[in-house]
Amino acid sequence: MTSPQIEIQLIAAIVAIACAIPGVFLVLRKMALISDAISHSILPGIVLGFFITHDLNSPLLILLAALSGVITVILVEAIQKTGLVKEDTAIGLVFPALFSIGVILIAKNANDVHLDVDAVLLGELAFAPFDRLLLGGIDMGPKSLWIMGIILVAIIALLLLFYKELKVSTFDIGLSSALGISPVIMHYGLMSVSSVTIVGAFDAVGAILVVALMIAPAATAYLLTSDLKKMLLLSVFIGVFSAIAGYWMANLLDASISGSMTTMLGIVFLGVYLFAPRKGLIAVLYRQKQQRTEVSLLTFLLHLNNHSEAEERHINHLQEHINWQRVRSRTVLNLALKNNMIEIQDDLVSLTDKGKEFTDLAIEYIITNKDEKIEPMKDDFFLFRG
Amino acid sequence: MNNLNYAIQVDDLTVAYNYKPVLWDIDLHVPEGVLMAIVGPNGAGKSTLIKAILGILKPIAGSVTIYGEPYEKQRKKVAYVPQKGSVDWDFPTTALDVVMMGTYGQLGWIKRPGGKEKKASLEALEKVGMLAFKNRQISQLSGGQQQRVFLARALVQNAAIYFMDEPFQGVDATTEIAIINILKELRKAGKTVVVVHHDLQTVPEYFDWVTFLNVKKIATGPVKEIFNDDNLTKTYGINYKVAVNK
Q1: Which residues 138-197 in chain B show a CB within 8 A of chain A?
Q2: Would the CB atoms of B93 and A167 count as touching at under 8 Å?
Q3: Around Cβ B173, how many Cβ atoms within 10 Å?
Q4: Shortest CA gap B78–chain A (Å)
Q5: Following CA atoms A238, A239, A242, A243 in sequence, which dihedral angle do they give, to the nearest 10 degrees?
Q6: Which of B28, B160, B171 is nearest to A371 (CA)?
Q7: How far is it, in rounded angstroms, from Cα A225 to Cα B137?
Q8: Is the CB of A226 less than 8 angstroms away from the CB of B139?
Q9: pTM for this structure?
Q10: Which of B93, B102, B132 has its CB closest to that of A171?
Q11: What DSSP element (H or E) covers B154?
């Protein structure tokens, strides 16, 4: 690996971490769309900042752009508060307007401004190593590495300091407010942090793809865990993995780096969506199939419980009485046998003690709907896992 | 003006959404140590009243004091149980973690909960019979269990006044009895409990104080004196008859 290659991957990884952390809270607050809005409407801020500083990496430009991100949020809320339009409509009204102001500003000044719409939308990660930070003539590395590094340190520090506040204001806005942890402050804090992150990452991955880096890792992690801390760690890991894997995919295909990174995020999400252990599609379908089988099992056991007559319990006539097809009856019979819930003597099926106990508990649960009764059964049976 | 005997004192409170008043000129004096129901039809402003007392909503007029001081100074004396439906139960967290959130107010900004907070939270979970579920993800709890977790979170706040917004909404009879028993225990310990309540039949059995509300305050006082057909009719607008065992 050459040193620019390492630098590009390092920048990509840092951008991915910095985006993933606020992304988790945006996803949990159901505000994913607002990151899309911010990423577009920072454009006029960037253009104005660029006119003033003539430097895409100037801190003033970052602050101006982040400010236009926060203004977006304020405008969206102001329009929404009129009660005339819904939130998604308000978002759809605000960000194209601000974005187009940026586009017009660029077009009007295209001759003397080194800034084009392509770069704004897709970023130029490949060029990031060329813009060096020189201190007293010494090369300190790429400027964007420093900028994103500083932003990342700030994000981690804020997360560690305000983790508890972020959590409670995201989960329960009413309690948070009553406890004196102002949800308004937390909201605008998160919006400011998201705006700064988007502006910093924007140079590397562009306005469209920064959204993927914020939302996709969090959405993927959400399918894998039900613990906020783990969700944060997983998002960071998924973001970094996709960024680096995307970089190598771009190398291999000789394609856009940011495009490949986003594609990789999509692939990872798809994989997790299909194969996640609990919330994944395959697990859900499997569970539904198991539940069907177990409802059948319970029906079968109840039938045995209710009938002592021999003809109702004969192994070859069971399906006629329960009105099932032969295959299904066979499956259910085998399942019951495997769990030692029934025994077969002279072709007559009857409940074992275990089967009787299970049936009684299940009936009691269904009648009383009391969860404590079936706690021990939950390990063995899908039916009761809700 | 400020009478220190009142746990909650609301004077001339008006709250509006988009300039349409939903609570109009409310005066409400709640003595310490009562178990009070707030009753009224849908849209009467019951939840709004609680939210305004807790500073979650800004009133356009009037004042609220808790033991003679503004709410901001008395936060630590007050616990709040919002409506169960107001939060996302798919949030990635456990029952214990939700209860721990009750300790955040005492901790203040930045400081993290530690062993002491955890111990108090476990005790609160035990009190509501949910200790066995402490590590359960909250979406895996039944509606009644979720409500008990919310109650445990209020208990851990160790407050003097408890506000509860429809704690009996969508819970089974066992949970309802468990909750009301805990509320009665709180009253016995001298706490003041204010509950937004829907089931008029159970008011005389559960509560000793009641406020009738329908945008304006209709009546407030001891259940034995004012829980009658006259006030019910005034509040609900129709000729209301409740079989109250006198």
Answers
A1: 139-140, 142, 145, 153, 172, 174
A2: yes
A3: 9
A4: 8
A5: -160
A6: B171
A7: 10
A8: yes
A9: 0.86
A10: B93
A11: helix B143-155
Cβ distance A180 to B139 less than 8 Å, yes or no, reads no
Tens-place pLDDT, residues A48-93: 888 888 777 788 888 898 999 999 999 999 999 888 898 899 999 9
Q: Identify the CATH number of the domain defined by range A282-380.
A: 1.10.10.10
Instruction: For chain A, give every domain's residue range.
Output: 3-278, 282-380
Return the closest-CA partner of residue B228 out of B200, B207, B205, B206.
B200
Give the distance from residue A290's alpha carbon to the nearest chain B alpha carbon, in angstroms: 19
- Helix (H/G/I), strand (E/B), else coil: B28: strand
Residues with Cβ within 8 Å of A214's Cβ and at least 6 positions away in sequence, in order, are: A19, A20, A22, A23, A26, A32, A35, A194, A197, A198
What ipTM describes this predicted complex?
A: 0.89
- The runs of H, that is alpha helices, within A225-325 are 228-253, 257-275, 281-306, 310-313, 318-322
Chain B CB contacts of A276 under 8 Å are none
Instruction: Note whether B131 contacts A: Cβ–Cβ < 8 A.
Output: no
- State whether residue A261 is helix, strand or coil: helix
DSSP assigned state of B75: G
Cα of A287 to nearest chain B Cα, Å: 15
Contact A171 B139 (CB under 8 A): no
Residue closest to A120 by CA, chosen among A61, A185, A59, A180: A61
* Interval B81-121: pLDDT, tens: 999 989 999 999 999 999 999 999 888 888 899 889 999 99
CATH of segment(s) A3-278 = 1.10.3470.10
Chain B residues with beta carbon closer than 8 angstroms to that of A83: 18
Do residue A175 and residue B172 have CB atoms under 8 angstroms apart? no
